[in-house]
Amino acid sequence: MDGDLFEVAGSRASARERMAQLLRVRSPHTSLPRSFYTDPEFFRLDMQAVFEARWIFAGLSCQIREPGDFFCFEIGETSVIVCRDRERHVRAFFNTCRHRGSIVVDQPCGHKSSFVCPYHHWTYDLGGRLVRAPNLDPAADKSQLGLRPVHIRDIAGLIYVCLADEAPDIEPLAAVLAPAAAPHALANGKVVHSVTLHERGNWKLVMENARECDHCQAGHPELMNTLLIFDFADPWSDPYIASFWQRCEAAGLPSVTRDGADFRVGRMPFKEGNLSITMDGQPAVARRLGDRPDPDIGSLRFTHYPSMFGHIHADYAIVVQMLPKSAEETTVTCHWVVHSEAVEGVDYDLERLVQVWRETNEQDRRLVERNQRGVRSVGYRPGPYAEASEHGVWTFVEWYARTMQEFAGPAACPAAAQ
Ligand code: FES
Ligand SMILES: [Fe+2]
User: CB-side exposure of 366: number of CA atoms within 13 Å?
Assistant: First the structure.
């Protein structure tokens, strides 16, 4: 099946109709037809149904530790301000002025006592309320002209936002991720390094790549010093993992892998004898994240569709955010987090801390871009996922297909692939 062009009822089908038809006829457990990775109209549907409707990873609460701290990021064309207000709550707002729509905050991050639109100086407090508007009719009701809020949720120091008017239920994720991540006290960490990669690949290829490790042995020599490969579909089948889970759970660390509709959270041991993901498997940071007395607690691995994954080791964490820019471009940002009181040059060496994941992310970028170039070919055809080792890939793709089917609606008309 090529499935890139459809005619419906004798006229050119809309993108939504084409997508619905392709989803209806696609084979399960195979990669998607080409349009899903390349078509700008399909990309627009992805943005509407997924990135503008679901919970999206924004960043870490430790990036906005004090009232007035903020950062901005973009979900498609929509810029979002994430800040901490005077009551120390995390808040998020659409970064568009309520006067005539200008971007209010240009800087990617910083500290402010208020947000002043540079155009005509409408001024908003940290809670988004309009407090000054020099050219506003005095009779106008300022209380109706605050920055529009964005749904926000802080889960154990991981901040998620949702642009939709009505946010989907995030409690299933919070119920699993919060107790699993809490022992690592990410909120008391600090981001000491961030790398942003502009990958020439569709966001789904970035997520697919992150959901399997069949490529790791050949593709990630540094990571494979320490990372354990396991059966994604049935981790319990490995006695090494089973005994690790029993030990960690007995010590009060939620560890057994748990799957939700749009997430997976689980603690995994490293290859035997290793304590962290570093070149030699020894900790990179002397001051551990959280207060666990045992350094041998593997890494908490978590993924939440569509925008993030992370690994929390005993001594440091990485959190990776994936944000689509176009049908064939994705911005991937990796943050490295250590204890807030860890001192560079004393408790850790930055190069040693970042080396493995920096190399791994760069290697993944090349894999994704090569994948993208291949699926652009007119000769591309969807191929089968491995039942066990690509379990994570097909569960993601099935989630995506279900999400888009609900959005695009049933394929109403018989259609023919050209
Ligand atoms: S557009 Fe912001 S003050 Fe005019
Ligand atoms: Fe990889």
Answer: 10
Phi and psi of 403, rounded to 5°? -60, -45
Prior bond to 306 cis, omega within 30? yes
294 close to 251: Cβ distance less than 8 angstroms: yes
- ipTM of the complex model: 0.98
Buried b (16+ CB within 10 A) or exposed e, 7-44: ebeeeebebbbbbbbbbeebeebebbbbbbbbbeebbe
For the chain, the domains span 1-54+173-418, 58-162
∠ CA 66-68-69, rounded to 5°: 65
Closest ligand 1 atom number to CA of residue 98: 2
Calpha distance 40→370 (Å, rounded): 19
Q: Is 100 in the pocket of ligand 1 (CB under 6 A)?
A: yes
Q: Which class does domain 58-162 fall in?
A: mainly beta
Q: pLDDT per residue over 184-236, tens digit each?
A: 999 999 999 999 999 999 999 999 999 999 999 999 999 999 999 877 777 88
Q: DSSP of 294-315, one letter per residue? A: -S---EEEEEETTTEEEEEESS
Is the minimum distance from the CB of 120 to ligand 1 under 6 angstroms?
yes
The finding on whether 123 has its CB within 6 A of some atom of ligand 1 is: no
pLDDT digits (tens, 9 = 90+) for 387-417: 889 999 999 999 999 999 999 887 544 443 3
Task: Return the structure tokens found at 358.
Answer: 């920096």
Q: Is 122 in the pocket of ligand 1 (CB under 6 A)?
A: yes
Given the candidates 3.40.50.800, 3.90.1150.10, 3.90.380.10, 2.30.40.10, the CATH classification of the domain at 1-54+173-418 is: 3.90.380.10
Q: Whose CA is nearest to atom 3 of ligand 1?
A: 120
- Cα 112 to middle of ligand 1, angstroms: 18
